[in-house]
Amino acid sequence: MSTVSLDQFLQLRISRRCQYFIENNRLLALVYAQQFDRPLLENLFRLADAVRSLSETSDGRLFLRSLLPDRRAMLYFTQPSTRTFLSFAAACHILGMSTADVRDPATSSEVKGETRQDALRIFSIYHDLIIMRQPEAGFCEKIAFQMLSWPGRKPIINAGSGTDQHPTQALLDLYTLHRCFGRAGGLDHKKIMLVGDLKRGRTARSLAYLLTNYQGIELILAAPDELAMAEDIKQHLRENSTTFIETNDMHAHLAEIDAIYMTRIQDEWDQGSKTSIDYSRLGLQAKHLTALKPHCYILHPLPRRREIQTAIDSDPRAVYFDQAENGMWIRAALIAHMFAVDKDILEH
Amino acid sequence: MSTVSLDQFLQLRISRRCQYFIENNRLLALVYAQQFDRPLLENLFRLADAVRSLSETSDGRLFLRSLLPDRRAMLYFTQPSTRTFLSFAAACHILGMSTADVRDPATSSEVKGETRQDALRIFSIYHDLIIMRQPEAGFCEKIAFQMLSWPGRKPIINAGSGTDQHPTQALLDLYTLHRCFGRAGGLDHKKIMLVGDLKRGRTARSLAYLLTNYQGIELILAAPDELAMAEDIKQHLRENSTTFIETNDMHAHLAEIDAIYMTRIQDEWDQGSKTSIDYSRLGLQAKHLTALKPHCYILHPLPRRREIQTAIDSDPRAVYFDQAENGMWIRAALIAHMFAVDKDILEH
Amino acid sequence: MSTVSLDQFLQLRISRRCQYFIENNRLLALVYAQQFDRPLLENLFRLADAVRSLSETSDGRLFLRSLLPDRRAMLYFTQPSTRTFLSFAAACHILGMSTADVRDPATSSEVKGETRQDALRIFSIYHDLIIMRQPEAGFCEKIAFQMLSWPGRKPIINAGSGTDQHPTQALLDLYTLHRCFGRAGGLDHKKIMLVGDLKRGRTARSLAYLLTNYQGIELILAAPDELAMAEDIKQHLRENSTTFIETNDMHAHLAEIDAIYMTRIQDEWDQGSKTSIDYSRLGLQAKHLTALKPHCYILHPLPRRREIQTAIDSDPRAVYFDQAENGMWIRAALIAHMFAVDKDILEH
Q: Stretch A117-139: mean pLDDT, rounded?
């Protein structure tokens, strides 16, 4: 691998780049949602279930904390995200890791003219794992590739790279669907509606992508024309024989779906340009609940604004707070996988 | 309890609201100083004494750290307070808890339009305890009530809510007095002078309130007229037969008191409006020490400014730095109580 | 010692001040690079080697973490430095200590008018060790002296005090040289060139100072005239019979040296005033590598800018990233020394 330069690496197709970050069926780095195939997903789901189950007792929690007490994780969050930060910190602490963090971009050593490569190389010397969230698309994969050549070959997890990738969010969304349908024959052959800003919302994009790992999924992509799912994802769905339809009337489809994945309108990207989108057509309200099947699950990556009325929170089909919890367990599972303590957990 | 709405709850008298946050003589949430009655205070004092005593040896410290190593606390400090933050962090670490924190209001997920209710619900999913300091009066009690209805019913501690409540400060002040008079027959029947901004200083207000749990206390409330103790507290003192007098000449009473509680002039609340208060009449200086009884203790919640000359620091009656230490022990005791490891500590 | 006032202490010569911070051959506080003599340096180097070696196995790491799990360190970094902060945090975590930190000067209690003395006294109550980095020269020594008189006599480590002192940086630089020459007869009698801003760069100043602990060192001080090493250090070199020459042509000496210590141009101190320094004459580039001896080590305290081309990073003689790693080990060793667990480590 060392014979390929960074520039050559970045020219490779995504499937080839993914191969650089896996060794003996174990992730060396998690950079892209595309790294998850169905066997890996199912391994991680099983592991997350075990972590959750162990966490129910004090003995189980102490066992988990005994797995990685001698390891130090760094949370490099120069793009703030309180929830993702705390979720990863909790995941580390569940496994007994100690953590250190950088959260303020302004305190970076970059003010002294140092490159971020130099800074991250040093951080990777001090720590056993880098968990990185920063605003620049493509930066995480560059660093992840370079880390393979630095002594120690420390692992890295992409906790969100701009508009680009947020693979653990996709992972927790899929894990939540997996759990919802656990007693209903699994996720295969389910009909799922994705709603909202499908163009810019990276969570919906990644989820649509990953759902092609399952059999017979039918997708309904509900968005205003301006925010429709981009062609690259639709092309991937077609290539993988995942059926989808597009609509801008989410409410017309409520009765037929097994799950609805609401997303936030990302209007912070609309810099100045006023849109004429009718947001009332993208919301789920208490009055719509009767239209849903008795077991139609309601997901949202959070934070939410007006897309889901708070009156829905107490409905048993609302699982968006479970998603947040699932995120913590699946992140702990991911770290356990990367540090090869997965067997210890499964065999306990 | 779940049959009462938040709005109904907020209409209840304080004594009724307190009942929501206690179950089987154990605090589910600490929101108000009014939650402390004498039996609870004495339990916590005994527990804090035990934590302090155990902390004197390495074995004792390791035992304490073995109590809650599988628990995670979140320090949600969107109103900065370095000392209170560090005191709680130390209290958590003494018991072996891991901690995560949010200290910068600007990094909050609120920037994406999320409500604080949603944010705190998620934080309570990731953690076993929320310790919250924020600037809005009344907010902590709302969240504490809502947390009772969320799955997990995670405990919360109010570490300061605006001008409103700061119950652990009141607790540590009382614990300090309790310790000072431990060998002098206890706190009952002592004469205590409170000095300074009694109108806005929530620490003096809470302390006066809690002192009604003791027998035969005599209070001297020393403040300029503009900063006199408010009527609500005086009414509470009268109802509980706690004697008090008011004065604006603290120095005239120095010879007769058993303890003096100095407070900081909160002039940061005087936005723009110049006051004509003569601060020299509110200060304790080295020259006043001879007027005090040989065992008259000098307290101050800190930070101090000019109210107490630094020359007084080395006087054995000055216990304001002990207060800071006591705060750490009593906070550890409070957390131990809430997590029901108090017996383990007392029986060790 | 208590008979000396702070003002009297500050009037003492540095060698006398150093004596206040050592007791039974153990540092009570590390404030000045001048506190390191050769026996102490060699003890710390041996200890750091042992910590590093133990860290190679999980058993060793767990042993190290078992040394100080009942101790709490405070990282008081009101002058931001991400790398130094993370290095110390890692050093604490290696030994099992828990950490709390203050990194934002604006969140300090100083906003309420409290003195920093009061604040630090309280922080020292909550913690077993203060690690302090702040921008004011001379402040750390004042606090360190005062801490000796406060109950608990908690230890303090200077992690950088303005332009003044950064003793652990000097320590790690020397430790790196010690390791580089470990198989080549040690550091005595080596020829070392220091390059760059020798006037303001405290790392080069401290290193030159400490090198007088070794026999037969020859120094080449390479700097533009405007940035030449100051007279105080040159006087110290003369008094200790350490040979040196001065030059502004670093490249003329590349072939004769055993190590080159590059430093960053500290032009952030040039407030407004444009200098006419020719930076190209202060850089090491790939084309210069052939001029160096096969075992001439290349050091840099980092962060670097243009002084060292990144193409040099992969040369085996480049040890500047090793310096960062060495810093973590030697800081752990220093803390282990201060907490008297050095024997446990050496005998394990």
A: 95
Q: Which pLDDT band holds residue C267 (cuts at 50, 70, 90)?
A: low
Return mean pLDDT, chain A: 93
Q: Do C126 and B81 touch (CB under 8 A)?
A: no
pLDDT at C1 over 50: no
The amino acid at residue B262 is M
In this chain, the answer to whether the domains covering C6-166+326-347 and C167-324 adopt an identical fold is: yes
**Residue A1 pLDDT:** 47
- What DSSP letter does each residue of B232-261 carry, written as one string? HHHHHHHHTT-EEEEES-GGGGGGG-SEEE
Which band of pLDDT confidence, cut at 50, 70 and 90, is reported for residue B1?
very low
**Which regions of chain B does DSSP assign to beta strands (E)?**
22-23, 26-27, 29-30, 72-77, 98-102, 129-134, 156-161, 191-195, 218-222, 243-247, 259-262, 297-299
B303: nearest CA in chain C? C114
| Over residues C302-330, mean pLDDT | 95
Q: What is the pLDDT of residues A147-185, one digit of tens each?
A: 999 999 999 999 999 888 999 999 999 999 999 999 888
Q: What residue spans of chain A are helical by DSSP H?
A: 6-11, 14-20, 38-54, 58-65, 82-94, 116-126, 139-147, 167-180, 202-211, 231-239, 320-338, 342-347
Mean pLDDT value across chain C: 93
Total beta-carbon pairs less than 8 A apart between chain B and chain C? 69
Nearest to B303 among C118, C125, C127 (CB): C118
pLDDT in tens, B54-87: 999 999 999 999 999 999 999 999 988 899 999 9
Q: What is d(CA C56, CA B203) in angstroms, rounded to the nearest whole number?
A: 51
Token pair for C26:
């153990």
What is the per-residue pLDDT across B7-29, written as a single tens digit (0 to 9) for each? 999 999 999 999 999 999 999 99
Q: What is the mean pLDDT of residues B207-224?
A: 96
Q: Is the pTM of this model over 0.90?
A: yes
Sheet holding A243-247, edge to edge: A243-247, A218-222, A191-195, A259-262, A297-299
Q: How, if at all, do strands C26-27 and C22-23 pair?
A: antiparallel
Catalogue the long-range contacts made by C40-43 (C-beta closer than 8 Å, 24 or more residues apart): C41/C171, C41/C174, C41/C178, C41/C210, C41/C213, C43/C337, C43/C342
Catalytic residues of B: 83-84, 112, 133, 166
CATH annotation of C6-166+326-347: 3.40.50.1370
ipTM at complex level: 0.94
- Among B262, B259, B256, which residue's Cα sits nearest to residue B285? B262
CATH homologous superfamily of C167-324: Aspartate/ornithine carbamoyltransferase (3.40.50.1370)
Backbone angles phi, psi at A160, to 5 degrees: 125, 115
CATH top-level class for B6-30+67-165?
A: alpha beta
Which residues of B fall below an 8 Å CB-CB distance to A? Answer: 69-70, 72, 74, 98, 100, 102, 104, 106-109, 112-114, 117-119, 121-123, 125-127, 151
| Sequence spans of domains, chain B | 6-30+67-165, 167-325
Cα separation, B126 vs B57, in Å, equals 33
Instruction: Tell me what pLDDT residue B125 has.
Output: 98
Q: Is C78 annotated in the active site?
A: no
Binary contact (C69, B62; C-beta < 8 A): yes
Its sign, for the CA torsion A206, A212, A215, A221, is: positive
The CATH class, in words, for A167-267+276-325 is alpha beta
Query: How would residue B163 be classed by pLDDT, with cut points 50, 70 and 90?
Result: confident
- For chain A, give the number of residues: 348
Query: Which of B59, B66, B82 to probe by mutation at the C interface, max C CB count within 10 Å?
Result: B82
Cis peptide bond N-terminal to C303, omega within 30: yes
Cα–Cα distance between B243 and B232 in angstroms, integer?
Answer: 15
The superfamily in CATH containing domain B167-325 is: Aspartate/ornithine carbamoyltransferase (3.40.50.1370)
* Structural tokens at position C260: 């080159």
